[in-house]
Queue: 3 jobs
Job 1
Amino acid sequence: MKKLFALYFMALGFALFANPPVLSAQQNDSSEIVIQSDGPQDSEQMPESVLEPEHLEEHGHAPLWLVVPFVALLLMIATGPLFYEHFWHHNYPKIAVGLAVLVVGYYLFALNNVHQPVHALAEYVQFIALLASLYVASGGILIDIDKKSTPMANVLLLLVGAAISNLIGTTGASMLLIRPFIRLNKNNIQAYHIIFFIFMVSNVGGSLTPIGDPPLFLGFLKGVPFFWTLEHNWPAWILALLILAVVFYFIDKRFGKAGNDELVHEEVYSNRFSLKGRKNFLWLLIIIISVFLDPNVLDWVPAIYYDGMKFSFIRETIMLSVAFLSYRFADQDALKGNEFNFEPIREVAFIFIGIFGTMMPALELVGNFAQSPEGSAIINHNTLYWGTGILSGFLDNAPTYLNFLAAAMASQGADINNIQNVRDFALDGYLDSSFELLAISIASVFFGAMTYIGNGPNFMVKSIAEQNGIKMPSFFGYIIRFSLPILLPILFIIWLIFFAFV
C-alpha cells in the first residue's frame, strides 16, 4: 500500500524531472516554476507562464474511455462495504491509489500532460490538509450535553450546526458536532440521524459565506465578493433548512423512540452543557485564518508558479503543523471521551486520492463540452442549476463549481482567470450573470449532500458514525433511501421557487 501511495507522487516527480524546472524569484524568462516570496510584483516581473497562459504548450486531452477507472472506483465504494466488506476494508487503499496511478500515468506518459495531474495533486493537498487539521483539532474538544434526546432538541442542534458551519466551515462544524450529536442520541441513534446531519450541517448549512463550503471559497478566491453569498443565498438557505428541519422532526418523532423500549429505567438528566479542550478552539481559529493565506488574493503570500498556476505552500504547512501540535498538546480526557483515532481521516485520505486522481478525465470532458459552442448554446440558469447540482453529487462539488462557472462566463465572453471579470459577473455586469452564479452556488453546495462523496465532510461523518457502531447505509442505499425521496424533492422545490419561472 505504501509503495502504491509513493508511486503516485514518484510518477509526478519523474514527469517534472524529465523537463527540469527552474526555481527563481526574479527571472522573467519561460521558466516553468517560479517561487515568489518578496511581496507584490509588477506585471513586468511576473513569469510569462502566469501572465499569458494562453501561450502555454497545448496539453493532451483525455479520451472518453479514461473515465472508466473513476466509474469503477465509485462502483467499488458503493458495493464494497455491502457485498465484499472484508476484502474492501483491507484493500481499499491499494485499489484507490492503484486506479489513481493508472490515470495519472496515462496523463503523464501517453498524453504528455503534466498540467492536470499537478493541478489535481495541489487540490488534493489543499483538501486533505484542511480536513486533517480540522479533524484533529476538533477531536481534542469534548462537548457533552446531558439532556434528554427529543426531536426538538435534535432539530435545534442541527440548526445551530448549520449556522456555525458558515463560521468554521462545513468540515469544522461537522467534526466539532457529530460526536456530541451521537452522544445526545446514544439511546436511540439511527442512520437517519446521521444522514440529516450530513444534509443540514455538512452541506446546506454552509452556503452563506465563502468559509462555509469549498466551492464558495474557490469562487471567493477567483473574485466573487466575500459577502455576495450572504446577500444572495440566504432565502434558499432558510427555505431548505426549514423544510429539512420539519421533515426530520416528524421522522424523529415517529421513529426516534425505537431503542427506548429496552431501557430498564428512565435516566435522570441534569440539562447541563460541559466543555473540555477549550484551547483547541484557538487551533481551529488558526486554521480558519490560514485559509485566507492564498497568493491569488494576497500578493505578499509566498507562491509557487507552475504552468500558468499559482500555489501556496504556507497555508498547508500551517494546517498540518496545527494538526500535529493540537494532537500533541490536546486534553487527553477530551481525546478519550471522543474515542479519538485516525482511522476516519485515513479512510478519507485514501478514498479521495483515488477520487482526485481518477476524476480528472470526467471533469475535463464536462468542462470541454460546457465551453464548446454546443454546450454554450444551452447554458442558462436552469441548466446550470441541474448540471452543476447533479455532477456535484458525484464529481466533488468544488471542481464542479469552477468548471460550470468557467463555462457560464465563457459563454458571455468573460474569463474566470480574470478577477475583475469574475467580480463583474457576480455583480450582474453581464446578462443575467449574477443569477447564473446564484444557480451554480446553490446547486454545488446543496447537491453536495446527494452522495457520500459529493462533499468532503460527508464521508468523514459516515466513517465516524461507523466507528461508533452505527450501521450506515451503503453508497446506493444512501441515495435510494434518503437522497432521492427526501433531498431531491426539496432541491426541486428550491428550483421551482427561485429559478424555474424567472
Job 2
Amino acid sequence: MIVNLSDAKTHLSQLVDRAYHGEKIVIAKNGLALIDLVPHKPDGKRKLGRLAGRFVVPDDFLKEDSEIVDMFYGDEQ
C-alpha cells in the first residue's frame, strides 16, 4: 500500500496498526516513495554485566553517615 504523506499524517494510528500486523506500508511525497513503515525489531537481547570490572563499589557503600542522618531527621532518633 502506498500512502501520500498528508494522508499518513491523518491516519497514522491506523497505518501503524496495519504495519504492525504485517502489511507493507510505503509513505510517499508527490508520488515518490520516501519510507517504509515497518514494525520495530529489537537489535538483540540486552547483555547484563556490561560494566563489570569498570568500577568498584566501596565496602562502606551502605554505611550511614551520622551527619547526613541528622540533616534529615534531626534529634528525632
Job 3
Amino acid sequence: MDTARAPQEPLLVMDGVEKSFPGVHALKQAHLDLRRGEVLALLGENGAGKSTLIKVLAGAHAADSGTIRIDGVRASIASPLDARRAGIAVIYQEFNLVPTLTARENIFLGRETTAAGFCRRRREHADALALFDRIGVRVDPESPVRALTIAQQQVVEIAKALSQGARIIVMDEPSATLTRQEVEKLFAVIRELKAASIAVIYISHRLDEVFEIADRATVMRDGETVGTLDVRGLTRDRLIEMMVGRKLENEFPKVRASIGPPRLEVEHLSRAGAVRDVSFHIRRGEVLGLTGLVGSGRTEVARLLFGADRRDGGTIRLDGRTLDIRSPRDAIRHGICLLNEDRKAQGLVLGLPVRENFSLPNLGRFSRLGLVRRRAERAAFAGRARALRLSVPHDETPASSLSGGNQQKLVLAKWLESNSEVILFDEPTRGIDIGAKYEIYLLMNDLAARGKSILMISSELPEVLGMSDRILVMHEGRLSGEIADVARATQPQILALAMR
C-alpha cells in the first residue's frame, strides 16, 4: 500500500476493517488514518467501499473485524450514539434535518437547553448565532429549514455537528447540488474548521475539488485501500489510475463522428421567466454541448423540448417536420427522450425492478390484448443490458440498488428501446464515479456514430470541452454565444459568455 508517512500522531486510525454482506465482501482489510485539522479526500468508484467504511465509523454498520483508534485509544463504536460521543459526525447527501423546524430547533433537537422544564429559546438563539459565526456564515436561526437553500441547510448540519462537540466531520458528496459560488463558500467553511483543528473526511467524485481543498487523498478499490498520498505533487492521471486500476489514455475519449445535416431545429423557443427566444439546431451524429451558470435556463430548454413544460412560443422541427409537443408522450412518440438531471426522482421508479423500469415507456411493443409478453420483455432487456454493459444480478433487481452509473445506463436502455433519435442528456455524469463516466462517454460516442443527435447539458466545463462537437452557452434564459472551434476553446472563454 502506497501510504504517505504521517508527521504527527493521527487523530483517527481505522485498520484491518472487514465487512461482508450476503454475497458481497464489502471491506477487505481497509485502512484509513486522519490527522487533526486536515481534509482527507476519500475516493473510489461506486462500490469501492467508501460508504461502508464511513458507516462503520458512524456506527451504522458493525465491522466483522478490525480496529478503530481515536487519539491512540481503541474505540468501540457500536451505534451512532457511540460515534457522536467519540466526536464523529457524518453529513450525508440526504440531510438529517426536519424541514418544518427552524435552524435553531434542528441544531439542538433532542438536546434542548431548558430551565424548569421550559426551552430557553434566547439562549439557544445566541448559541446558534455563535456557531454560525464560528464558521463564518450568516443564517437566521429562526428560519424554517424548508425556507433555506441547500447550501444553508448544509451549514445547519455543520453547526449541529459542532454543537455536539464533533472533532471529525465526514462530508458525503457535499457539493453535488451546489452552485460554484456555494461551493466556494463551503470551502471557506471547511478552512475555518481546519483552523479550529477539526478534521474533515471529504467524499467526492469531483477531482478538481480534491486538488482545491484536500491535503491528502485515500483511494479505495474493490473494498481495499489502494493508497494514501499527499495531494501536493499528485497528478490527476495518477489519481484516476489508482481509482480504476488501469490507465485511462484519455479522460474524455471523444471520437468525432460523421456529422450530417440538421435533424432537430429549434426557433424562438420561449417560456416566461426561464427561456427567452432561443434558437439552435442539432445535426445528425453531433454532440451539442449546452452550458451556463445554474439558473441560466439550460434544463428548462430540455424540459420544453421534451414537453415536460409548456412553451409560450417557438417552433420545434425534426427532420424538417414541425412537431406539436404538448407532453412527454408526444416527445417520445416523435423519438425525443430526456435523461433527467435527477434520475432518481424523475428518471426511474426506484422501488420497481430494473425490467419494469425498462419497459415503462415501451409497454406498447411488449403488450398484446392488454397483457405484457414477459418473454419478449425479458429478451429485449437482456439485449440492451449486454449492449450497454449494464451490471445487474437479474432483471428483478430493484432500481434503487444500482450504482449511479448503472442507473444512468438503465434510463438510457429504456430510451434506446423506444427508438429515440434525439437524446437530451441533462448532467449525464453527475454523481457518477470516474470509471462509470468513461463508459457513459463511450456510449455517447457510439450513439453519435449511429447517427443519433445528442444535446449534452453540463455544468462541468472540462466535460463540455472534452465531449462536444459544438458548444452553446446560456445566460439568463438566452443564448449568449456559440463556440464552433471546440479544440481551441478554453474554460475562461466559456465563463465569459456565461457571465455576459
